[in-house]
Structure formats: structure tokens, C-alpha cells
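User: I'm writing a short methods note and want a consistent example. For Anti-sigma-K factor RskA, I'll paste the sequence; you return only the C-alpha cells, no commentary, since I'll be parsing the reply automatically.
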Amino acid sequence: MNTKEYISSGIIESYILGLASPDEAGILECVMKNNAEVREAFEEAQKTLEDLATAQAVIPPDDLRTKIWNKIQQEQTPQEVAPVVSVDIPAAEPQEEIRIQRTSNWKVYAAAASVLFLISVAGNIFWMNEQTKTRQEIAQMETEKKNQDLAMLKMNQKMEMISNPDMKMVMLKGVEKHSDSKAMVFWDTKTKEVYLNAESLPKAPQGMQYQLWAIEDGKPVNAGMYSEEKDSKVALANIPKAQAFAITLEKQGGSPVPTMENMYVMGEI
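Assistant:
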């Protein structure tokens, strides 16, 4: 795995969010000490996450502190008045009055602690929800980046084929029943290898597969089975001679002869 693959693996984001295993964290810390590119990627990812957290931070309402203090005052006032208006407590028993005051103070502290505890729980729940949302957004961004990288790779492969002077391009246009369909055959006139770009064809139904045919002296010759993994990058067959190409939809694995009613596109060289 090279440096760029290591950076795009997601280990840096996992480390920052505390999700990396001890072994993964140790390896990353060691790599950062010896690789400036990884260290810069780490700093950039850390800043991105900090900016994201700052942008999504929710400031508590200005009157929250006042509401908490008023709540404590409401709990405290009745308890403090009770010992003062009570005239039945004998003067000879000061310890009982002290116990009442201590009980009153304890209730006030308990009420305040309950309020603070609820605020703490609510804050933790909010923080956990924000963390989950942040991780989901990061995962979505990573998925989008991978899709963009894959699209760019396919584009580069097509550009290499187009710029190859030995590569002949044959446009296959939709037949009457599939007029909106199209595909492109890349035929290397030097190696005789045939590549197919068929991303514009409808997705093949379950159990079916597109098959390419080379028309040689008026007869169809099997030119290989198409799959999305092979698109534009894996040669389907070696065709020494052909006057045209066509694509039919066949059962999975192909057919020895084309099913003419299932022909989608065709193009002459």
C-alpha cells in the first residue's frame, strides 16, 4: 500500500474520532513521524473535523443559567422559611433545629444536583448525536470521494484508448426497438484485441448478460461477454477481421448464436 492509498483508507479519520485500534493508532503515529505527506494529511483532516464541529455547534440559550438558578431558589425558599415561623420548637433543643436546617440544605443541594445532572445527561445525548451525525457525514464524503476517484480512473482509461493511434473506435447505435441505446467498441488494429464501453446500455436483468458479436464476411462471430467490471479496461476477445459489431442480450454465460430479437445496438466499421 502506497502513501496515497494509506491516506485514503480512512485510518486518519478513525484515529481522530477515537475509533482506531491500538495497533492501528501506533502504526499511524509511527508513520506520521517519518512521512511528511501523512502528517500533513492528518493535520488537514483534524482541521476539517474541528471546523465541521464548530460550524455545527449549538450555543445554549442565554436564559438557561437564569432558569437553573430560579429553580434552585424556588426549592430553597420554602425550606428556609419553615424553621423561622415554627414557634413550637423548644429553646432547650438547639440540636433539633440544626438537624432541620441541615435537612433543608440537603434537599436544596439534592435539587440542584438533580437539575445539573439532567443538564449533563441532555448535553451528553446531544454530543453523542452530533458525533454520530459527523461520522455519517465523513463516511458519506469518503464514499463520494471513492466514486469520484473511480469515475476519474475510468475517464483516464478511455482517454488513453482514444489517444492510442492503433485504436479504432466503432460507434454502435441502437436498433429500432432500442433507439436510445448506444455503445462504443475499441478495436486495437495492432493486437486485434476488442474492448467495449457499454455503460449507456440498460442494466441487464437478473440471469441475463450482454454479448458482443463481430460480423465477419456476413457471419456473426462471438466477441466476448460483457460485464461492468470489464468495461473499457479488459479485452473481451481477439478479433482478426470484422466489418461490423453488434450486441445482443443473452442468458448468463452467452449463446453460440445471437438472438436477433434481443439485439440492442449495431455499428459498421
